[in-house]
Design goal:
This protein has helices at 65-71, 165-168, 174-184, 198-209, 223-231, 260-267, 306-319, 333-342; strands at 2-5, 26-31, 40-45, 53-63, 87-95, 107-110, 113-115, 135-136, 148-152, 157-158, 190-194, 213-218, 236-239, 248-253, 268-276, 297-300, 322-329, 348-352. It is of the alpha/beta class.
């Protein structure tokens, strides 16, 4: 797996002739204090990890569309002020009490799901993604738009062998949610991907590695993204207003556009599935029952489980040949969010402290 860096900054792992850590007494963070307002750069005291927690020096944090939903206040109110960011890769720098692992100096990934209660019906029935009392990184607890972050050690994933933190960062949500969505699509061989951003560019490669056919739907007229999808192995690419040339077995909707649900239902065969992958979507318009009939299904994806992460991180080095990234320094987090909103890059934006 390699990264194709399209931004001005390229990150390489430093040579270990020098000490791994140096004394740090404060943290830089891009902070959201009011929904709809720009993030502000703040300097904060270095956080101390509590019981079961680790402190991580952030090497890279990808920027997700969910971060836009958090910043814009499109989700139920969370923690304010909050440091956004939930696609984090970094080096463990300190351990709180009762932490058996990971060890100091190890590279880890920190995802959206930051903590679960472990005792509710969902946690005890292997559905921790639906926990009744969860914490979410960058939403209800501080995230990775910062130089350092504190995380629950049980929800940090070892990234041994992932030597490029910039390439690994988008895997922490775009990859994991894409993988969970693909699992929900079942054994589908012909899969439509609606919205070809960070998640789709990763999961399209997984589909091709598995021998499936990918049909990419973009904003109407976005020929650059269509060409990009074809370069990653899509069998066809066109606008979301175009008819698919084949009948699909399943469709995954990554774009937060409710009007794509009836469009995808019309594109899938009898018994086909439409998987809504986003945490937020505009209202689904009224549609005739006949496009749902014949046992078509509409499903939603909520969060992820640690098992999803273990599965995906095991196959990603083989299945994902290229991670396309545009890098930004931490202080330009607002620019990264604006560029994501406007669709000014392919793949994923990644902040580098």
């Amino acid at each position: 797996m390699s990264a194709r860096h399209t931004g001005a900054t390229q990150v390489r792992r430093p040579h270990r002739r020098f000490p791994l850590f140096f004394e740090v007494v404060s943290v830089k963070a891009m902070v959201l204090s009011a929904y709809g307002a720009p993030l502000q750069l703040e300097e904060r005291p270095l956080p101390v990890p509590g019981s079961g927690e680790i402190r991580v020096r952030v090497e890279a944090c990808a920027v997700c569309r969910t971060d836009l939903h958090v910043v814009d206040g499109e989700l139920p109110p969370g923690k304010l002020p909050v440091v956004p960011g939930h696609e984090i890769v970094g080096i463990v720098e300190a351990l709180g009490p009762d932490v058996a692992g990971p060890a100091i100096g190890e590279r880890v990934g920190i995802p959206w799901l930051g903590h679960t209660c472990g005792t509710c019906f969902y946690c005890t029935s292997h559905h921790e993604n639906l926990c009744d009392d969860p914490l979410f990184t960058g939403y209800t607890r501080d995230g990775g738009f910062a130089s350092h972050v504190v995380a629950d050690a049980a929800f940090a994933f070892a990234l041994e062998g992932f030597d490029d933190p910039v390439a690994a960062a988008p895997l922490m949500c775009a990859g994991l949610i894409g993988w969970r969505s693909l699992k929900m699509a079942g054994e589908a061989q012909r899969i439509g991907l609606y919205g070809f951003g960070a998640a789709a560019h990763l999961i399209a490669q997984v589909c091709r590695w598995q021998g499936r056919e990918v049909y990419a739907f973009t904003s109407p007229g976005d020929t650059a993204t269509q060409a990009y999808a074809l370069s990653l192995g899509a069998a066809w690419a066109g606008g979301s207003d175009e008819a698919c040339p084949v009948e699909l077995d399943a469709a995954i909707i990554f774009a937060p556009v409710g009007a794509l649900v009836p469009a995808a239902l019309r594109a899938v065969r009898k018994g086909g599935r439409v998987v809504c992958a986003g945490i937020h979507m505009s209202d689904i318009p009224q549609f005739p029952y006949d496009i749902l009939w014949e046992e078509r299904q509409v499903l939603s994806v909520a969060n992820l489980t640690r098992e999803d992460a273990r599965e995906f991180l095991a196959l990603a080095p083989q299945a994902v040949a290229q991670v396309t990234t545009t890098t930004y320094p931490l202080e330009r987090a607002n620019d990264a969010l604006a560029d994501l909103r406007a669709g000014r890059f392919q793949g994923a934006a990644v902040l580098v402290p």
